[in-house]
């Protein structure tokens, strides 16, 4: 029997600041975390939250995951005593790259001082599963634990993987999320080298002038629990995670299928999993990277799935405000979407001033607006797509008493 | 090879304590007889400590040396012996 899954805690470290509320409030207010063409978490100091030992043993992506996890678990009521035996809690945290600043630093050490000078912390810091392992260790989570690796869909895929773990009854709760700290010389040069990032340094999804994404860093962590177990312990419910759909394009290493067939199948699968029709969706949290190819193919995919209703459902992109957090993006977008559903607000797509031909959906340009009420708790889907052809879609519902 | 430097036992001990503080230990209470097993010092720290010593004093520290080290005094003795 499949168990219902609820969200009882969220945490975020983003270019808009530390904290999930900061993220949703500032995005809804139309504020931007992008400066000089990059989206850094410039006010994030790991030693504000972690001991010196914890901080120095973790790459920046892990540090941000640890801080986001602390926030999410505190909100879920974990601070005083964990509500479940550690054996009954899983942890899945995705990343696109892993500890790339560690790799860059240690590569320099090796070239300059030889292989004998490598830090023993190099491997535990750079491995892409480090964030999952560190969060599990910090909170004594001893159920299934791993990292997901599917480029910019990794964060969303971690949420989906944790959802299945709870649905199956493997664990009572699963701590899921994504983390990325790829605002580094190698990573930025590599994405620029393939023409993925914006030369202008502006994130303007769906605008005619869009020329690539703005690279960002951060982490998002979500506490998923079995609805039954959460109710038993009278946990505060922030929202419901009702559907997960994942497909592959099998089309091109980096380019999305221009017709958006794979993305459309993932959206349809997530809605089917949630037991809803496209007509029930009140908001689409878009992948919306600001690359010429993604925004067009995603628009096509939404049209395929939503048909006549495609132009009336609001669609907006968080990446217009905080850039592209790569493997953290999907998880941070879940945090933001849960916040939007709870607030009853549709946050905006910033910098969208000149609509592109054929991109004619309601992208909520410039300003947020109240979410329309359709006689049921508001429902949203969140799209995440990754190089490699990964398509992941999550379906969420507001919790209303 | 880095140049071998002369160093007193006090200087070596101070350098070891400095490294442990860098790893996250509290300076208060650290003394020659402090045992790593009683501190929050694990095998990763010891490997890093060995690297620091090698760089600083131009000596070689083997894994088998690390196996015998239990206290700050043991580290100081090892370095003094190699420098002698």
Explain what the structure shows.
The complex is a heterodimer of chains A (401) and B (84). By secondary structure, chain A is of the alpha/beta class. Chain A is 34% helix and 18% strand. Chain A contains 13 helices and 13 strands. Chain A has helices at 20-28, 52-56, 60-75, 100-113, 122-126, 130-139, 154-168, 185-193, 227-232, 261-274, 292-306, 319-322, 329-343; strands at residues 5-14, 17-18, 89-94, 145-146, 173-180, 218-226, 239-248, 283-285, 315-316, 345-346, 369-370, 379-386, 390-398. In chain A, strand 12 and strand 13 (390-398) form a beta hairpin. In chain A, helix 1 (20-28) packs across helix 13 and helix 10 (261-274) packs across helix 11 (292-306). The two termini of chain A are 25 Å apart. The relative contact order of chain A is 0.19. The mean pLDDT of chain A is 97. By secondary structure, chain B is mainly α. Chain B contains four helices and no strands. In chain B, helix 1 (9-23) packs across helix 2. Chain B is globular, with a radius of gyration of 12 Å. The A-B interface holds A 51-54, 56-57, 116-117, 119-121, 124 and B 22-24, 40, 44, 47-48, 51, 54-55.
Outline the biggest β-sheet of chain A: 11 strands, mixed
- Mean pLDDT across all amino acids of chain B: 89
SSE series of chain A:
EEHHHEHHHEHEHEHEHEHEHHEEEE
Shape of chain A: globular
Rg on CA atoms of chain A, Å:
20 Å
Please outline what is shown here.
In chain A, 34% of the residues lie in helices and 18% in strands. The mean pLDDT of chain A is 97. By secondary structure, chain A is an alpha/beta fold.
